[in-house]
Each structure stands twice: as structure tokens, then as C-alpha cells.
């Protein structure tokens, strides 16, 4: 080897080493962010405008929507009814009623090819999670979301969107028919949902069923210390940018304790100072990154 070749050999080695070290980081940065939208309804009767907006965001007359209603024991029928409602608005829609075993069948996965909208029906979120979580169908739904599809649901179909997912069980309930009478650590049972939202926990039927103590107990006790309670007839729409938008007949309550001073982990009765709360009606927005909320059209 000549001395003139040595610098070039060293330079090439350094370049290769540099690429080897930074290639994983470059790959991670170049992965596209999800391009889909979340359309999360707090249960109850949905205003016609909300259903129309879901179809419009899914592609309007070109929308191809699938309904999964396994959260309810009667979901095979209610899922068919939901699909017909969507068809009446011009979408191609079908109800897919499957067991956990069927959720790994390639023939079922293929039914999601080209889908632009996915709807999870109401009932018991634990049933829905058990039917789909970790399956090929769940991964196919995620792939459609990453490609730009709208993923939405109502009631149980809303709760399952986030991880942690509120199961609906109160851990310390014993001798009373009343639920969540205190803001206390260890009262709210959670499980893993479908993890479309991991920076907040979702509660539903919120204002109508007075679920403030439940959500506060979870938000103050455990990370991510951010929660949103969505009322009936109301939707949380999460844009591809990450911005939260509220639409519908009522409102959503955001409890943000990320920068609050909270009671120590060995205290059961919870307390906090400097908790930020926002009650957001139709047209309002919230940026979970900055923590800033805005009331659409409101006087400042």
C-alpha cells in the first residue's frame, strides 16, 4: 500500500463507522409519522353532523369503512345497523364480526385492504380489546391509520383508543352502590388499549354520568397525568398534526396534571396544586404538546 492511499483508506473507514453509528437514528427520523385521524365519541346519541363528518373525513362517497362491534353481545346486529347508516351517507361500509381466533386469519385481514375508515362500536371495552388486541387484524387497522385512514369509535370504542385504558371496574368498591365517591389512589382499574393515544387517558359518557372522581383519581395518581373526559354526543378529533379538536352537542373536560405538584406516592388520598383544567365545547382545540387550549369563537 502506498502512503498516498492511506489517507483515503482512513477516510473511508471513518465514513463507514460514522454511517454505522448514525444510520439507526437517521432511519428513525425518516420514518413517516401517522397520517390518520382519530374520531373518538363519548357515547350516547350521535348528532347527524358528527356521523357526516366521520364519513367525510373517511373519503365521503369514496369512503370504505369497516365496523367492529364486538364490544357488545348484540354487536352483530348493531354493527349491521351502523354499517347501513354509513351506507346511507354514501360510504361503502360493512360490519365485521369476528372472534379472537378469526382476528388472525389472513382472509379477514384482507378485508381491510384499501379501507379508509374504521369504527369501533360501544358496549364493554374489555370484550373489544380481547377480540382484537395483538392480532393481525389489529396490526392491519394500525397500518391503515398510518396510511391516512380515520379510526374512531363510541363509548367502549372510545375507551379502547388509549393506553392506559379504563376498564370500567372500581377496585375498592365494597359496601356501597355509589361509584367513585372519592379521589383516591388505586381505585381505577386499567388495562392496555390499542395505544393510538398514549399521552393521555380517555373517559367517556363523562359529564352525563359524573365521572370526574374516576378520571381525577387516575390522572393524579399515575402517568401520563393527562386525561380527557368526553361527554355523550361529543367527539374528540385528533388531527394528524396531533392537535385535539372538540365537536358535537356537549363538551369535553381536560385534566392536565403534568406540571402540577402532586401528593407523594405513599399517600392514598390524592391531592394536587396547579392542576390545569379546560372545559371545551364544540369548536374548541387543545394542543397536548404545549398544554394550550382555545375556545373557538370565544371572546378573549
Short characterization:
The chain is α/β, with parallel strands linked by helices and 300 residues long. The chain has helices at 5-30, 48-57, 75-88, 106-109, 125-132, 136-146, 156-159, 212-221, and strands spanning 37-41, 64-68, 92-95, 117-120, 150-154, 165-170, 188-191, 201-204, 226-230, 234-238, 244-248, 251-256, 261-262, 272-273, 276-281, 285-287, 292-294.
Protein described:
The structure is a single chain. The chain is α/β, with parallel strands linked by helices and 300 residues long. The protein has one domain (32-293): 3-Layer(aba) Sandwich (Rossmann fold), CATH 3.40.50.880. It is built from eight helices and 17 strands. It has a nine-stranded mixed beta sheet with strand order 3-2-4-5-1-10-11-16-17. Residues 1-30 have low confidence and may be disordered.
Q: Please report the number of helical segments.
A: 8
Q: How big is the Rg? A: 23 Å
Q: Which blocks of ≥5 consecutive residues have pLDDT under 50?
A: 1-30
Helicity, in percent? 25-40%
**What percent strand?**
15-25%
- What is the H-and-E element order? HEHEHEHEHHEHEEEHEEEEEEEEE
How would you characterize the largest beta sheet? 9 strands, mixed
Number of domains: 1
Q: What is the terminal separation in angstroms?
A: 75 Å
Shape: globular
Spatial order of the strands forming the largest sheet: 3-2-4-5-1-10-11-16-17
CATH topology: Rossmann fold
Highest CATH level, the class:
Alpha Beta
Question: What's the CATH architecture?
Answer: 3-Layer(aba) Sandwich
Care to count the β-strands? 17
- Fourth-tier CATH superfamily name: Class I glutamine amidotransferase (GATase) domain
Amino acid at each position: 500500500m502506498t502512503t498516498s492511499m492511506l489517507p483515503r483508506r482512513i477516510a473511508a473507514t471513518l465514513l463507514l463507522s460514522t454511517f454505522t453509528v448514525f444510520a439507526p437514528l437517521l432511519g428513525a427520523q425518516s420514518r413517516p409519522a401517522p397520517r390518520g385521524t382519530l374520531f373518538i365519541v363519548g357515547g350516547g346519541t350521535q348528532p347527524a353532523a358528527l356521523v357526516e363528518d366521520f364519513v367525510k373525513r373517511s373519503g365521503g362517497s369514496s369512503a370504505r369503512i369497516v365496523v367492529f362491534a364486538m364490544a357488545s353481545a348484540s354487536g352483530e346486529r348493531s354493527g349491521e345497523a351502523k354499517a347501513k347508516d354509513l351506507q346511507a351517507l354514501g360510504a361503502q361500509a360493512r360490519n365485521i364480526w369476528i372472534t379472537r381466533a378469526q382476528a388472525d386469519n389472513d382472509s379477514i385481514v384482507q378485508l381491510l385492504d384499501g379501507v379508509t375508515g374504521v369504527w369501533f362500536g360501544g358496549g364493554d371495552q374489555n370484550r373489544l380489546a380481547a377480540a382484537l388486541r395483538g392480532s393481525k387484524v389489529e396490526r392491519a387497522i394500525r397500518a391503515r391509520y398510518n396510511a391516512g385512514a380515520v379510526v374512531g369509535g363510541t363509548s367502549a370504542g372510545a375507551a379502547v383508543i388509549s393506553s392506559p385504558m379504563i376498564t370500567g371496574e372500581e377496585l375498592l368498591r365494597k359496601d356501597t352502590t355509589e361509584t367513585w365517591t372519592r379521589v383516591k389512589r388505586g381505585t381505577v382499574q386499567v388495562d392496555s388499549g390499542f395505544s393510538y393515544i398514549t399521552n393521555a387517558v380517555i373517559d367517556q359518557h363523562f359529564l352525563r354520568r359524573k365521572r370526574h372522581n374516576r378520571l381525577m383519581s387516575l390522572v393524579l395518581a399515575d402517568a401520563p397525568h393527562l386525561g380527557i373526559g368526553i361527554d355523550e354526543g361529543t367527539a374528540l378529533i385528533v388531527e394528524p398534526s396531533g392537535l385535539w379538536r372538540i365537536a358535537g352537542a356537549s363538551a369535553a373536560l381536560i385534566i392536565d396534571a403534568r406540571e402540577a405538584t402532586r401528593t407523594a406516592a405513599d399517600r392514598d388520598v390524592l391531592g394536587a396544586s396547579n392542576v390545569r383544567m379546560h372545559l371545551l365545547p364544540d369548536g374548541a382545540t387543545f394542543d397536548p404538546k404545549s398544554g394550550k387550549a382555545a375556545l373557538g369563537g370565544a371572546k378573549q
